[in-house]
Design brief:
By secondary structure, the chain is of the alpha+beta class. The protein contains two helices and three strands. Strand 1 and strand 2 form a beta hairpin. The longest helix has 16 residues.
C-alpha cells in the first residue's frame, strides 16, 4: 500500500482505504455473500447466477463500499448473506 500511496502522491491522485472483507465473495448485483461464489478468476453468484470476472466484481464492491460509506464506514457483515 505504501508504494501505491507514494506513486499516487507523486501524481496528485487521492488514495483512500476501505475494508476489503468479503468483497471477493459478495455479488455486486444482489449482495449475496457466499464462499462458493468465487472460483479463481471467475465469479458466479449462487443466488442470482450473475457471472463476471472475479476481480472486476470485487472492484465494483470496493467502489460501492467507498461511495456508500459516507462519514462513517459501512459494513456488509451485518447484512443478510442468504
Amino acid at each position: 500500500m505504501q508504494c501505491v500511496e507514494y506513486k499516487a502522491e507523486e501524481r496528485g491522485v487521492f488514495v483512500d482505504k476501505v475494508n476489503p472483507q468479503n468483497t471477493s465473495k459478495r455479488c455486486n448485483e444482489c449482495g449475496s455473500v457466499r464462499d462458493n461464489n468465487r472460483h479463481r478468476d471467475k465469479f458466479e453468484c449462487q443466488r442470482c447466477s450473475k457471472q463476471n470476472h472475479a476481480d472486476y466484481n470485487a472492484a465494483k464492491n470496493i467502489a460501492e463500499l467507498y461511495l456508500l460509506r459516507g462519514p462513517s464506514a459501512v459494513s456488509w457483515e451485518h447484512q443478510s448473506i442468504c
